[in-house]
Structure formats: structure tokens, C-alpha cells
Amino acid sequence: MPKTLIEPFRIKSVEPIRMTTRADRERLLEAAHLNVFLLRAEDVLIDWLTDSGTGAMSSRQWGAIMEGDESYAGARSFYRLEKVVQDLTGMPHFIPTHQGRAAEKVLFSTACQKGQVVPNNCHFDTTRANLEYLGVEALDLVIAEGLQPALIHPFKGNIDLVRAEGLLKERGDAIPFGMLTVTNNTGGGQPVSMANIRDYAALLKRYGKPLVMDICRFAENAMFIKLREPGYADTPVRAIAQEMLSYADGCTMSAKKDGMVNIGGFIALKDDRWLEGARNALILSEGFPTYGGLAGRDLEALAVGLEEGLQEDYLRYRLRTAEYLGERLEAAGIGFVKPTGGHAVYIDARTVLPDMPQAHYPAWALTNALYLEGGIRGVEIGSVMFGKRLADGTETYHGMELVRLAFPRRMYTQSHFDYAAEVIAEVKGRAAHIRGVRIVRQPPFLRHFTGEFAWVD
After folding, report:
1. Does 183 sit behind a cis peptide bond, omega within 30 degrees of 0 on the bond before it?
2. Rounded distance, CA 225 to CA 258, Å?
3. How confident is the model at residue 53 (pLDDT cuts 50, 70, 90)?
4. Distances (CA, A) of 267 to 72, 104, 154
5. Mean pLDDT of 71-75
6. How far is CA 20 from CA 27, 42, 364, in A?
7. Residues forming a β-bridge with 180
8. Residue 391: what pLDDT?
9. Are 370 and 364 in contact (CB under 8 A)?
10. What's 59-308's CATH class?
11. pTM
């Protein structure tokens, strides 16, 4: 067989990209207060801000949309999706939501109280914000290898079981549940091993605590297990995913990732300890429990997407895409989180801007530089996203300064990746001219979404 791994799909519809000049982009970025979130999408050439809800749906999904039952209560589409989720997760209770952060808000408002602490390998931005908004401490306990971008380790998303047990011993009464994010988005899209999932679940069980998984990229995590963990090479990815989820007591999902849809999410629960509270919170904020903020057509598209997201030829291609861009960056001498993750490549901004003070937000500065140079929109995973301004005006900083290039599913071809590699290499060559930023205005939570910035003089 040829060595070239082709896209396992054909393109039936295209969307034109509006080309811009550097002068255009300088003007547009200034108007957006140096925050790429505030750009209009039509002013972006390659949009790798996120893989959340930005992919292309399949012909099967578009066909399923026509089957959507838009009944307010008890729609046929709900029961179809419920069965798919039950078969996948092994959990009988299914609560749809319009996206992942809504699932988090509904579940956390039911299961958590102010003053508690929730351990995780790493909480992503909305997960952390939803917990902190309730006065709950969101504690990251990823293994030490997960904080070293250049280090090669097959499962850098693993949670540190020694630290987790220490927390359970010291503060067990304050822990409502343990969390695990698969794959670990904050740490570079890195997978969690089956052994680590199994051992963490057993540890929590010994202390009487349930395990809640964030499974928005469960299929990619399962594929990594198949490729990297001994004993799983001949196991179907679907069976691996089902085993992963068998260790959890509940899960939240932004289905806009491995659900392969543009909108949607859900909560699944193994027992009814949080069920009534979650359904009541859902009705207050999202909608009736059989639609949860989604149209019937969205439920139908998700039922198909959860099946397509587990196709092994697609997953092999998706993981290889990230690996390919990583190889191009390696050749250009640009550091990134190794090995590459499943949904993105995370550039280590410190390898491009080693002399920029952290107070000038090097990952944010690099994100701006990629847009200015080539119209590429990525997202900072660094001290803007995960740092804080304290009451006395001082800043806390994140342990890593990363720029995530997250790839929408079934959207871009190899030429886009080749173009991006050239742009990134050009930015590195012009690193001495990249300017840092300072924060001019910020909200109290999730400041990266709407904050405003200015160049450092």
C-alpha cells in the first residue's frame, strides 16, 4: 500500500475563503483590540481557533436532519439519540444540552457546593470557570511529564494518582467527585491510558467518590489507546471507548468535538444520585429533558455523528494530520507539545519567543503574529487563558505558554497544512519583531474570550 494517508472522504460542497493582505490584517486586528476572538470569521484565512462545532457534517448527517422530530416533549429523535448514548456509555440516564459548558453548568450546580474541590488531570477553560463561579476549587493533578512540552511520553494526559490519593486523604470530605478529561485539552490534546483510567476510578471508589469524565474527545483518546497501549492493538475503537466509559459514574460531553456536529452536548449518568436535580436545572436553563436546548434535527445529526466519530480510518487520518504538521514544525526548529495530540498542535511559544517576559503574554503575542503573517487564527493556551488578576492588581501566570492550532473535522486539506507550516516558519524567522501585549480590559471570568489588549510600548 502507498505510504500517503489520504483523506477518507470526498468533498461535495465548498466554501470560498476571502483572501486578505497583511495591511488588511493589521487594520482588522487593531479593530479587534488585538484579540483574535473578536475578529470576523470572514477575515480569517485558516480558522484553527477551535475544533468545537466547526467541522463539516457528512451526507448521512444531512440526510438524518430531514428526519428530525420537532415535538416539544417525547420526540422520536430524542429516543434515537438516547439509545446511541446508552449503548456507547453504558449509562441509562441521558440528558441532552445545547453544548458542553451547559452540561457542566447543569451538573455542577446540582452536584457541587461552595468551598468544595474537584480534582482533574486538567480542567479546560469553561470547566474551570463553571466550577469557580460556584466557589469550587478546580485542581489540576496531571502527571509531571504532562507539563514538559518537549518530553515524549505516550500518555501525558494521565492524572497523578499519588497526588490524587493525597488530596483524597487530606480533603476527602470536600470532594464531591473526581474528574478526568479525555483527551487532556489544556495539556496539548494528550491521551489518558486505560490503565490510568482504571486505577483512578478504583482509587475514587475506595474513598466513596464517583468519577465524572469530560468525554468531548473520547474517540481520539480511544484511538490513542489502540495505537499506544499494550493489549489493545486488535481491539475495535468502539469497544475501547465503551471500556473507558465503563469506569465512569457520569460524563459531560461537548458533542461539537467527537460528536461531529455543529451544536450539541449531553450529560450521562450511571445512577440517579444527581438525576432529578440535573433535570430540574435543565428545565430552568436549557429546555424540556427530551430536547435540552436542541432542535430535533440536531439530535438526529448527533446520533449519526457519534457513530461516524468512531470510524477507525477517519481517526487514523485525523491523528496523522496533527502528526504531519508536527513533523513540519520540527524540521523548522519550532517547539511544540510532543507527541502531537489528536485534535490540535500546540506550539510552545517559549521556543519562538524565549526572551519575551511572561508579563507580555508570549503565547498571546505569537497568536497575533500568526494572524498578521498568514491569516491563521489559533488560540492562546497560556497566561491570559489560565492566569488571573488578583485583588491587589498582581497577576498569576500559567505553567506553559502554548498556542493551540485546533483542526475542524473534515474541513482542511494537506495544502492548508503546508501553507500553515510555511507561515509558522516565517513567523519564527521574524521573532525579533513580534510585540508583546498588555491587558486593557478584562471580565472576571474567561477573560480570553472578550478581553481587550494593547501593544507593549
Report:
1. yes
2. 16
3. very high
4. 19, 8, 29
5. 97
6. 11, 10, 21
7. 213
8. 83
9. no
10. alpha beta
11. 0.94
Mean pLDDT of 110-118: 98
Assigned C-alpha cell, 193 = 491510558
Which of 214, 305, 221, 309 shows the shortest CA–CA distance to 267? Answer: 214
Sequence-separated contacts (24+) of 430-434 with Cβ below 8 Å? 430/369, 430/373, 431/352, 431/353, 434/352, 434/353, 434/356, 434/365, 434/366, 434/368, 434/369
Q: What does the alpha-carbon distance between residue 389 and residue 443 come to, in Å, rounded to a whole number?
A: 10
Distance CA 284, CA 14 (A): 39
Query: Is the bond preceding 339 in cis, omega lying within 30 degrees of 0?
Result: yes
Compute the C-alpha angle 112/117/121, nearest 5°: 110
pLDDT of 1: 59
Grid coordinates of 290: 427530551
CATH architecture type of domain 22-51+312-455? Alpha-Beta Complex (3.90)
Whole-number Å distance between alpha carbons of 203 and 178: 10
